[in-house]
């Protein structure tokens, strides 16, 4: 791991060598999230746009020289990464735009973007020969850790709020994790998980705590740029809960700029639900991202419900330092976005994924994007993760099945009405 120079605390600026600390800067309790700093000169001897063009490993591991692991580190067998980037012409047209792309991370093995981070956690934990890996999660990070652990036979303990959608809890049980359903919020689950990890010495995958999760998540930015032949998009829309994904995208883009793989930094637009809009408020009102009081976190989009976003320092910087913006959308706008996205390009997203599309709709209506800009909307989660949310969405859209007897005449009547 000679390519990692330091871990730099984003609160106090102190630098640590990678073997000095595992997670946070010890100076600030649980808030001292650190950033992994690389030796780009060294990395550029190991990876180039040309070497990538010849690399037939279409997974996140094609970017291994930019990931926090040794080149010969063993990786899990599941196919993680290189999700499709679709050009969405009908969706673009609706908004009067020309170039809209949808990247579908609902296609990852456990159905969400979180596989990118959990894969890195599992690799690192196994290098350390950790007996148990743990995480708290609103559901998807847990499912991702659970599934990737199952693929290599790794024990893990999961903390999720008992209100997590049943599909996500089912995943955990199917993969045979030890599952703690917490009678409380995600924030409660997070605190307990940190305590447990400290008590038992478990490997800690928690978002906004383990700095290497950002590094896994940045692979989506690598893929977007490579899939666009290294012409970076102008704008990227992503939904934001804890803020780790948006921070990861920003990190990936910074890596690519440092290596000269892309020439411009896209604007990053973070989309939050109205009831879980901590970062939107901080950004809009210029508040202190470290000390502002938590919000309720209430939203139909469970995956972006975060009263106190754990990765908020990186999440705010992703927007402010790219001249981006935060946008907030209502639960109704999120639910409306599910069938719109599905009908416009065939991508069925869970509410938190569809929120990114709802954000672009709002941005187009408020002039936050221009007609000719190349815009990427990231779907972060599969629609099958939350059927209750999807059913509410189609009811709102007025879509109902016809219930008929197996009879041709009845079919004809039903088709005439439809
Ligand atoms: C986790 C998640 C998000 C938000 O990611 P953060 O890093 O918490 O901001 C968005 N969508 C889905 C589907 C997720 O699982
Ligand atoms: Zn510090």
Keywords:
418 residues; Rossmann fold; six-stranded mixed beta sheet; four-stranded parallel beta sheet; 16 helices; binds pyridoxal-5'-phosphate
What does this structure look like?
The chain has 418 residues and is α/β, with parallel strands linked by helices. The protein has a domain at 85-111 and 213-396: Rossmann fold. The chain has 16 helices and 13 strands. The strands form 3 sheets. Strands 4-5-13-10-11-12 form a 6-stranded mixed beta sheet, sandwiched between helices. It has a 4-stranded parallel beta sheet with strand order 8-7-6-9, sandwiched between helices. A 3-stranded antiparallel beta sheet has the order 2-1-3. Helix 10 (244-259) links the parallel strand 10 and strand 11 (267-273). Helix 4 packs across helix 5 (140-152), helix 5 runs parallel beside helix 6 and helix 9 crosses helix 10 (244-259). Pyridoxal-5'-phosphate is lined by residues 112-114, 140, 207, 239-246, 303-304, 350, 352-353, 380-381.
């Amino acid at each position: 791991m000679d390519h990692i120079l330091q871990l730099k605390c984003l609160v106090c600026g102190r630098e640590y060598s990678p073997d000095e600390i595992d997670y946070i800067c010890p100076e600030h309790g649980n808030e001292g999230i650190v950033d992994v700093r690389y030796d780009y000169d060294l990395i550029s001897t190991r990876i180039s746009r040309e070497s990538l063009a010849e690399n037939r490993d279409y997974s996140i591991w094609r970017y291994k020289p930019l990931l926090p692991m040794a080149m010969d580190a063993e990786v899990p067998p599941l196919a993680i990464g290189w999700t499709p980037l679709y050009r969405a012409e009908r969706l673009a047209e609706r908004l009067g735009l020309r170039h809209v792309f949808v990247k579908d991370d609902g296609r990852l093995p456990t159905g969400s973007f979180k596989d990118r981070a959990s894969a890195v956690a599992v690799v690192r934990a196994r290098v350390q020969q950790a007996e148990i890996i743990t995480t708290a999660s609103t559901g998807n990070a847990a499912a991702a850790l659970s599934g990737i652990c199952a693929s290599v036979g790794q024990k893990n303990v999961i903390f999720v709020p008992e209100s997590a959608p049943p599909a996500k809890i089912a995943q955990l049980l199917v993969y045979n994790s030890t599952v703690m359903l917490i009678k409380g919020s995600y924030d409660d689950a997070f605190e307990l998980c940190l305590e447990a990890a400290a008590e038992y010495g478990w490997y800690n995958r928690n978002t906004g705590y383990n700095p290497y999760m950002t590094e896994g998540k940045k692979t989506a930015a690598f893929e977007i740029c490579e899939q666009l032949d290294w012409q970076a998009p102008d704008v990227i829309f992503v939904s934001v809960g804890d803020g780790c994904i948006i921070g990861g995208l920003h990190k990936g883009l910074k890596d690519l700029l440092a290596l000269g793989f892309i020439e411009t930094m896209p604007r990053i637009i973070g989309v939050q639900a109205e009831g879980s809009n901590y970062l939107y408020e901080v950004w809009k009102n210029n508040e202190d991202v470290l000390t502002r009081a938590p919000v309720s976190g209430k939203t139909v989009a469970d995956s972006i419900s975060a009263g106190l976003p754990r990765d908020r320092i990186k999440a705010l910087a992703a927007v402010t330092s790219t001249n981006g913006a935060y946008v907030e959308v209502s639960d109704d706008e999120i639910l409306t976005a599910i069938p719109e996205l599905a009908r416009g390009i065939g991508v069925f997203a869970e509410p938190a994924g569809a929120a990114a599309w709802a954000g672009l709709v709002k941005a187009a209506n408020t002039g936050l994007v221009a007609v000719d800009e190349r815009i990427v909307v990231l779907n972060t989660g599969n629609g099958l993760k939350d059927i209750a949310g999807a059913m509410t969405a189609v009811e709102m859209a007025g879509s109902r099945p016809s219930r008929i007897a197996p009879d041709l005449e009845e079919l004809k009547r039903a088709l005439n009405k439809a």
